[in-house]
Amino acid sequence: MHIYFSGIGGTGIGPLALIAKKAGYSVSGSDKQDSDYISYLKQHGIADIHIGQSADQIASVHNKNPIDWFVHSSAVSIENPNAPELLFCRENNIKLSKRDELINKILSDKNLKLIAVAGTHGKTTTTAMLIWMFKQLSIPISYSLGAKISYGDMGEYAETSEFFIYEADEFDRNFLQFKPFLSVIPGLAYDHPDIFPTVDDYNQAFVDFINQSENVLAHPEDLSRIGLESISAADGLENKISLPGLVNRKNASLVICAMQSICDETENELIYIINQFPGVSRRFERIIDNLYSDYAHTPEKISGALQLAKEVAGDNLVVVYEGLHNTRQHFIKDKLNPLFSGIDKIYVVPSYLAREDENLELLTPEKLSVIIKSSNQVISSQLDNNLKNSLQQDLKGGKLILCLTAGGGNSLDEWLRKEFK
């Protein structure tokens, strides 16, 4: 079967393409822009990737090797329901679906039990922790992860695996298409107002998700927030874990509880293994000494990233802030001032734009700087040599620099890797 993945450079579709290739399918794809993720996929054997998403490009692929199944990211259909690739597939009777349908087919065909990691924040790191535990215990595992790790690919399929670990995103209600054997929920807070109009709507989606899961592990305060009784057995376990960052320690406790339900290892052995967790890309990832990139973009994620950075650097901290979506900046702007209170220097760069509400005013670095304003220095900046020189001076002065960045093509994260690594 030939599967064509549209939006293949995304963190949801890219790993699935890797899984499909390893499971024996023929794989090709496209994305609207080039990125480090595209290079990563090509290095891992998926060479037939087109930049641009025209009808001529997909027709050329189809003529060489007929496409059986067109899998697309939610963003593709949301941004343009009549995108050229979608129209081509409809005109040529090619099966169309989002990623969930393909994942459910793989789960069914391969008889895999789904371990879903869902929630507003902490999904990627918690998923990576679970994968780390399985690999360190030499338990075969298949998985899909929305970030790079040092101990495996972003997506893997193991023929002998019993479980499939999936980072289940609530965007576009994707996670409601699954009925997991085990769901692990590391954190809940209202997000994605473009999909969930109200807090109650968002919370109800998680109630529905929990109700269709066989087993659930979550923090009691999150379950209480959505009106459910505590069903987590992880209370206090984080005090035995030595990972940096309180959020990481709390989520690691969920991972240990999950592993205790799957394997026979002792709690002490599981704690020892999780304490060796090497981290994941773009989650307090070291670019060079004292320069870190983190994909924190909601208030809760930003708060957790700042807590971790302060735990390491104390008051010796500088922040670079790239908002993820202009729409979200409007949604969280009243929280930015208290979030960054106490940070002596903040550079604000242009927000990473995608899936935007064109009716909203563009919050430029200058406008966001005024909103944040409580810091001693809030500096409107661009991704240019002026910013590079300023950051180099901060590093020479012994500062730890935390870059809160969206990632993806032409983002702050990509700029950092080109300019500093």
Q: What characteristic shape results from the CA principal axes?
A: globular
Largest sheet: 6 strands, mixed
Oligomeric composition of the shown chains: single chain
User: Order of strands in the sheet with the most strands?
Assistant: 8-7-9-6-10-11
Number of DSSP E strands = 17
Mean pLDDT: 93
How would you briefly describe this protein structure?
This protein is of the alpha/beta class. The protein is built from 16 helices and 17 strands. Helix 7 crosses helix 10 and helix 10 crosses helix 11.
Describe this structure as you would to a colleague.
This protein has 421 residues and is an alpha/beta fold. It has 16 helices and 17 strands. It has helices at 13-22, 36-43, 55-64, 74-79, 84-91, 99-109, 123-136, 199-211, 220-225, 246-260, 267-274, 299-313, 326-339, 365-372, 385-396, 412-420; strands at residues 2-6, 26-31, 49-51, 69-72, 95-98, 113-117, 142-144, 155-156, 163-167, 182-185, 215-218, 285-288, 291-294, 317-324, 345-352, 377-380, 400-404. The strands form 3 sheets. The protein has a 6-stranded mixed beta sheet with strand order 8-7-9-6-10-11. The chain has a 6-stranded mixed beta sheet with strand order 12-13-17-14-15-16, sandwiched between helices. The chain has a 5-stranded parallel beta sheet with strand order 3-2-1-4-5, sandwiched between helices. It is globular and about 60 Å long. The protein starts with a strand and ends with a helix.
Keywords summarizing the entry:
alpha/beta, 6-stranded mixed beta sheet, 421 residues, 40% helix, 16 helices
Topology:
Blueprint: E1 2-6, H1 13-22, E2 26-31, H2 36-43, E3 49-51, H3 55-64, E4 69-72, H4 74-79, H5 84-91, E5 95-98, H6 99-109, E6 113-117, H7 123-136, E7 142-144, E8 155-156, E9 163-167, E10 182-185, H8 199-211, E11 215-218, H9 220-225, H10 246-260, H11 267-274, E12 285-288, E13 291-294, H12 299-313, E14 317-324, H13 326-339, E15 345-352, H14 365-372, E16 377-380, H15 385-396, E17 400-404, H16 412-420
Parallel strand pairs: 1-2, 1-4, 2-3, 4-5, 6-9, 6-10, 7-9, 10-11, 13-17, 14-15, 14-17, 15-16
Antiparallel strand pairs: 7-8, 12-13
Helix pairs in contact: 7-10, 10-11
